[in-house]
Amino acid sequence: MRIPPYNRKYLSLLLVCLLSTIIIAKLALYPAIFNGIELGYPKVDDVSETMKTRDKKTILLWNTFFGDPTFSIGMLGSAVFHQTRCLYTCHLTNNRSKLPEADAILVHTYNMAPSRQNSTMPHRINTKQIFVFFIVESPLRSYEGFFETEFTFADIFNLTFTYLRSPNTDIYTPLGGVEKKSVPDEANFIGLDQVLKKSKMVAWFVSNCQAPSARIEYVRRLAQHVDVDVYGKCGNLTCEMGNGSCLNQVKRTYMFYLAFENSFCRDYATEKVFRTLKMDMVPILYGYVDFARILPPKSYIDVRDYESPRKLARHLHELNKNRTKYKEYFDWKKYYNVLMEPDYRAFGFCRLCSILNDKQYNYKKKFDPINDYWNPKELCLSDDEEKRAVHLNDV
Q1: Annotated pathway, please (predicted)?
Q2: Domain-located, residue 81
Q3: What pLDDT, in 10s, does the model give residues 6-48?
Q4: 171-172 and 176-180 as β-strands: parallel, antiparallel, unpaired?
Q5: Three-state SS for 2?
Q6: Taking a C-beta distance cutoff of 8 angstroms, is the pair 261, 213 a contact?
Q7: How many domains does the chain have?
């Protein structure tokens, strides 16, 4: 049957409108994509009407997040699900007496080693309960403590809630990120006059001098060619991270900040990266991370892009001499906002709530998170591999 031309015209318009509506709806739930960078909050999957239920699920936070009973989101109950405009509303609690009725038990696994707090593992009350493996420390740092106990995590956990980009990560929550502004503005933009006032080159705050990383050696090599001021236990300068006036002085004075991770493990980019982006210093990054995937172009310097610490220092001196070129490292602030770890974690709980309400979700059955998922032999570079990655053996 032939469709008259005018009918084809209206049919085409109808299809265009329908596709536009679908695209707009998905953009409200999915992270923005710009120049290949994933921006905004982690995606919350669409859930069909048949999967929705009026039954409010209970999520039990079994232990604390380094002493914080709310896991840094600052709220319990249903507040976080309302705040994130979640498709579903769950109930978040840290009351262990609720274990029998909990639908999901979230365990901060780093704390489960005997040498750390809250090392008593909860017992599954019924087979329908979902156990969530939550961790934000690198595999190198967390793995050692797991060998202190004869207890095994095998066949206990059903979901993973981490920063690792992996098909085995159910709830992906990075430790920070950026989102594109709806309208470009210069509210957080640094001007040339501020750039010209900076009088020092490189600052580094560090307290872990024995980290399993070659970063200390890299800084020693770098300091042979450019001034590096070290604050904290590993240096001779002091400035508490909670001291606002001191930090303001640092960011006004220094051009660059060493955001060096203490473990060279895949996707391990901590708050120091994103905190530095919020400040008016250019972060120099050291880690086993695809930074181009998570950060705006020309917002950072990656040590792996330079053939040696000496050549990196040469580039820093060039930027010091050409402040107009240096200022280009802040142009991204017109277009992006920086999000910190609690922002992402809040949406992570929304994602968890959505999964609990998804009757079709494929939960893990037989799973050893330590050996199959969080194994440093698979996720972290050896000392020699790390040194090669940052060109530490080159002149």
Answers
A1: Protein modification; protein glycosylation
A2: yes
A3: 455 454 555 545 444 443 443 333 343 333 344 334 444 444 4
A4: unpaired
A5: coil
A6: yes
A7: 2
Confidence of residue 96 (pLDDT cuts 50, 70, 90): very high
Residue 117 · residue 111 · CB < 8 Å: yes
**Vertex 363: Cα angle to 357 and 368 (nearest 5):** 140
Burial-class residue 238 by CB neighbours within 10 Å (0-12, 13-18, 19+): exposed
Q: Has residue 149 got a pLDDT over 70? A: no
> What is the reported pLDDT for 180?
92
126 and 153 fall within a common domain:
yes
Give the C-alpha distances (Å, rounded to integers) separating 270 from 72, 285, 302.
15, 11, 15
Name the H helices within the chain: 5-29, 79-83, 139-146, 192-197, 215-223, 244-253, 271-278, 291-294, 309-321, 323-327, 341-356, 376-379, 383-389
Distance CA 363, CA 156 (A): 11
Instruction: Please state, rounded to an integer, the average pLDDT across all residues of the chain.
Output: 83
Residue recorded with tokens 């989101």: 73
The answer to whether residues 121 and 189 belong to one domain is no
| Tens digit of each residue's pLDDT (9 = 90 or more) over 252-265 | 999 999 999 989 99
Q: Is 180 helix (H, G, I), strand (E, B) or coil?
A: strand
One domain for residues 131 and 200 = no
CA distance 269 to 291: 9
Q: What's the domain range around 222?
A: 185-334
Residue 189 sits in the same domain as residue 242 = yes
Q: How far is CA 26 from CA 86, 174, 350, 356, in A?
A: 14, 21, 16, 21
- CATH code of residue 109: 3.40.50
Together in a domain, 82 and 140: yes
Q: Are residues 114 and 209 in the same domain?
A: no
Tens digit of each residue's pLDDT (9 = 90 or more) over 56-84: 999 999 998 888 999 989 999 999 999 99
> Do both 127 and 201 map to the same domain?
no
Q: What is the CATH number of the domain that holds 220?
A: 3.40.50.11660
Does any domain span residue 359? Answer: yes
Instruction: Round to whole Å and give the CA distance between 197 and 188.
Output: 17
- The half-sphere exposure of 128 on its side-chain side, counting CA atoms within 13 A, is 9
